[in-house]
Amino acid sequence: MNRFLLPAGVFLLLVMVLFVGIQRAPQKTVIPSALIGKPAPAFSLPVLGTTEEFDSASLRGQWYLLNVWGTWCPECRNEHDMLLEIARTELLPMIGLNWKDDDAAALEWLRVLGDPYDVTAADREGRVAIDWGVYGAPETFLVNDLGVVVYKHVGPMTPEIWSREFLARLPKTSAGASGAPIAIGAGS
Amino acid sequence: MIAELGHFTLILALLAALAQSFFGLAGPAMDRPSWTSTVRPAVWVQFLVTTLSLGALVTAFVNNDFSVEYVAANSNSALPLLYRVSAVWGAHEGSLLLWAWILVAWTLAVALLSRSLPEPFAARVLGVLGLISVGFLAFTLFTSNPFLRLDPAAPDGRDLNPLLQDPALAVHPPMLYAGYVGLAVAFAFACAAMIEGRLDQAWARWTRPWTTVAWAFLSIGIALGSWWAYYELGWGGYWFWDPVENASFMPWLVGTALIHSLAVTEKRGLFKSWTLLLAIMAFSLSLLGTFLVRSGVLVSVHSFAADPARGMFILAFLVIIIGGALTLYAWRAPLLRSEAGFEFTSRESFLLFNNILLVVAAAAVFVGTMAPLISDALGLGTLSVGRQYFDPVFLLPSLPLVALAAVGIHSGWKKGRLSDRRQSILLALLAGVLLTLVLVLGVWEGAKILTPIGFALGLWLMLSALIDPIDRWRRKLSMTRAVIGMAIAHLGLGLFVVSITAVESYTRERDLALAVGESGRVDEFEYRLEGLSTVEGPNYDALRGEVRVFENGKQVGLLYPEKRNYWVQRQMMTEAGIEMQIGRDIFVALGEDLGAGRWSVRAQVRPLINYVWFAAFLMALGGVIAATDRRYRSRPEPAA
């Protein structure tokens, strides 16, 4: 042993700390999806219960959520209240992708449970879901104003997931750099 | 097309850097002169293609090419040209490319100015620099490529973060990177010396000017960042001990130790292994700073978009570069012996203490910066370290350092020969104490405990730094750049201490709630909100206040603080109104709308604050002057 090994030893300890640090970095929970960081697939589908077409191009320039659901999916029932809660905040539009479902049943579901979606697109044959890489409902995608998929959550939406994974990724609408709270009242 | 060109040249740059490191290291090792002589052309190629690559990104920004995702995410068609260019390094990907370009620019400078060095040694230096280039270029290319296309193209970009739309911040990153990367040159010199197992005084003479210039860049970069924080963040602070600020400050402290230690190695052939270790540490801390900013392990106002994959890449890179250098050090440093001794009051021992104190200060900052991370890694919960820790812990080694400098700059090599200067030094101390009394009792009233100590030490050092140039001038002795540079840098340090002391002791600030026509009082100062109006900038609209400031009833300033609303990012920014006067700043920032026509107004008077940055500039200037001293330029042949 010589004393000249000491710096290398200290460095080794530091590397271990940094390694653990990376493991614990808040972003570690990203579920790998081939789509994250890629442009969201474009689609054009009938609006549920109507003959109108909804074109995803109309969403360009704004952040939005795309929630994949179906009346046949029990977990979708579980997350529905949370979705209503999110819709109430009016932070960003939520698009429903009604997947391989029956129109009448879907409309009835929204009428009885409440409708959190700004638009619900009916993907009766599931072609759009294939483009989006959906492998089981519910799934929720977060798409940014450049049309890039920022995050994808598989499974029911919960308040924790919402604030940790979605809210945290949304752009801040006001800067936090406005100084300390006001200390005193009016002068003179 | 332009993005593909940038992408392609980036790949070429990586290949050129690989060639550069291979030929630079393998050439001398296998004794193949043809390989060794290939290094410089490889540097040229790498420089040219990296320049093209950076140029391509700049072009994409200037032309508002929103089919490039990075451009779309960080620029906007309404953004003024200056900021469209500086937006290139406004986020992670582009700033890495800038890093890589500055590195190859330094490398080219070394390649051009190292002709007088032994060929195998110069090749090894360039080889090590090539290896660092490989790391950064690969990092850019594989995890952070700024040239990725967005299909379909965005109609307009998301705009540069309004915080970064500022002239000082356009220049701050390039300066800072020039400093960080310049320390890579010292690192490469150290590695080359360790590979050869030989380190002599000539080595220190080659390394010194590079290190000093890098240190000067780093000083200016840090000062610009601090200046920006002062007027842009809206609360008038200039240093927050934020992890990212610390990440730039630690290499500066160790770099300062290094330039002093190199002086001993050059003049006396001592401190060899210590100098090597400092050279390794200074650059390692630069890399660590990069890691902390970009991996997301520490939360900071400066954080780039954090990404664990990037963190892993940099960590692997750290292990290879720093781990490799430290292993080399453990193996080679024992071979380097210094035989000469020195007396207690000699310059050597003053510089030894200088080094100890600087490294202790750096270690204190390091511990404070890493503590939250260590605590989290050990599962002890989150920990936040702030001023309460950093201020005292940093001052403890720094104040003795200033006193040491005031005396130490007059000490002689090898033997303690202070006697001929003792009188002048004591005179300077006396004058410093008298001036302190004038400041504390006359100019500003009242004092905190550290106020007179800070003033006296700073003034003493300022006066002491002038003794040598004045003495030489009176005795008509030669005035080398080394002498002038050293005097200016230490004068700057003294001024820095004095101005920080004044700011910390005599700043008067208060938040007032004012409606139009109302005024508020802070001691002898009165602030009257004369009016509020709306103004429009190129990519924002702003509420502009008009604030008249009176001191004892006499008007001393008319300020226009703004609260800007940037359209694209929908961010509110404060633009403080600052009236710079000789000896003080009057600072007014508009805060929140309190309702009923009232606005919170932050009013401050900060004495000497501008001298803090001016002092940092003096230190950097001193460094640059000293680094251009004649003896570094002369060729080995005395004739030239």
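The beta strands of chain A are 44-46, 53-55, 64-69, 94-99, 119-123, 139-143, 149-154.
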